[in-house]
Specification:
The chain is an alpha/beta fold. The protein has one domain (8-353): NADP-dependent oxidoreductase domain (TIM Barrel, Alpha-Beta Barrel). Helices cover 38% and strands 17% of the residues. The protein has an 8-stranded parallel beta barrel with strand order 3-4-5-8-9-10-11-14, surrounded by 5 helices. Strands 1-2 form a two-stranded antiparallel sheet. Helix 5 (187-196) packs parallel to helix 6 (219-226). The longest helix is centred in the middle third of the chain and has 18 residues, at 157-174. The radius of gyration is 20 Å and the shape is globular.
């Protein structure tokens, strides 16, 4: 079945519509390696040329670099033709202390070539959040963004609920933002916030993948029930699912987990028996869950951007997903993508049996 990455869906009950495939700009913030301005523009142009118009960025991505690059690219584009999200709660400023969580064990930073003396920090106060958003708008060259995520509120759930969400609600009412979400690496954090805030969307990173199903425990079922759109990120598990082996990066750290590698290789073998690449399965898997609206994936070159889009469009037969379930590679009952024909068949059979 051909999946159209340009198909648009609303975020929750808002009028903000996003592509099924969203470009994440972490690589354009020089994650793991420096990317030239020319190469960054090539990524954005390749995305644009394929008809895709939704972009996900944050101040942390290159400590402002990714936002600036996106802003330059969009400068001459009609505002009504693209959709942009950014994040609040982790602004960047000169003089902030370096965050140890953004470095490898040997002291090498995740982001390279960042502005001298500029670092991200957590600020979930009203004033800090508003200042951070203002700075993002300046870097982007925009007077509004389509949706905003509270960024990594793992240790700031109360501030997110009691301080930041009410401010974002005010901005939404004023038309400065169109939808409100939270971005998190943990389903339980997204669930805790969604239970107390009328979120339109949640960006869940790395917790609903072919190898990690934590998001399915509480968050995804709740979002499906409440009509909250889930944007699924980290689908390659920090690159591990592109080439699973001992020493490969998994959730931002090299892994020595041989059991994890064995699971990934089992999935890869099943995919290949059906003529499907592991990467295509990884990028399309999350779309089987009724809560998931879109997938967000990064790209570090124009060639990589084109490959990502092709992977999204790669035909995947129902039989492959069925075998993954039958062999225990996916937990029993995991919702999986289905072709339109199989969906129609099930609907017809359901009608007859009813």
């Amino acid at each position: 079945m051909f999946r159209d990455p340009c198909e648009r869906s609303p975020l929750g009950k808002t009028s903000v519509f996003v592509d099924r495939l969203i470009l994440g700009l972490t690589p354009l913030g020089n994650l793991y390696k420096v990317i030239s301005d020319q190469d960054a523009e090539g990524v954005l142009q390749a995305w644009w040329d394929r008809g895709l118009r939704t972009f996900d960025v944050a101040p942390v991505y290159g400590y402002g670099i990714a936002e600036e690059r996106l802003g330059r690219f969009l400068r001459d584009k009609p505002r009504g033709e693209f959709v942009v999200s950014t994040k609040v709660g982790r602004p960047v400023r000169r003089g902030a202390a370096p965050d140890p969580a953004l470095y490898w064990a040997d002291g090498t930073p995740y982001y390279h070539g960042t502005p001298e003396g500029v670092f991200p920090y957590y600020d979930y106060t009203r004033e800090g959040m508003l200042w951070g958003l203002e700075q993002s708008l300046t870097r982007l060259g925009l007077d509004r963004v389509d949706y905003v995520h509270m960024h990594d509120p793992d240790d700031h759930v109360r501030e997110a609920v009691e301080v930041v969400f009410p401010v974002l609600s005010e901005l939404k009412a004023q038309g400065v933002i169109g939808a409100i979400g939270t971005g998190t690496n943990w389903g339980r954090v997204g669930y805790a916030i969604a239970r107390e805030c009328a979120l339109d969307c949640v960006l869940l990173a790395g917790k609903y993948t072919l190898l990690d199903f934590e998001g399915q425990e509480q968050l995804l079922p709740y979002c499906a029930e409440q009509g909250i759109s889930v944007i699924n990120g980290g689908v390659f598990s920090s690159g591990f699912l592109t080439d699973p082996k001992v020493g490969a990066t998994y959730r931002y750290r090299p892994t020595a987990d041989e059991g994890l590698v064995a699971r990934a290789l089992q999935i890869k073998a099943i995919c290949e028996r059906h003529g499907v690449s592991l990467k295509a399965a990884a990028i399309q898997f999350g779309l089987g869950h009724p809560a998931v609206t879109s997938v967000v994936v990064g790209a570090g070159s124009a060639q990589h951007a084109t490959e990502v889009i092709d992977l999204f469009e790669e035909p995947v037969p129902d039989a492959m997903w069925a075998e993954l379930l039958a062999e225990g590679a996916l937990p029993a009952g995991t919702p999986v993508p289905q072709t339109e024909c199989s969906q129609l068949l099930k609907a017809n059979l359901g009608g007859r049996n009813g």
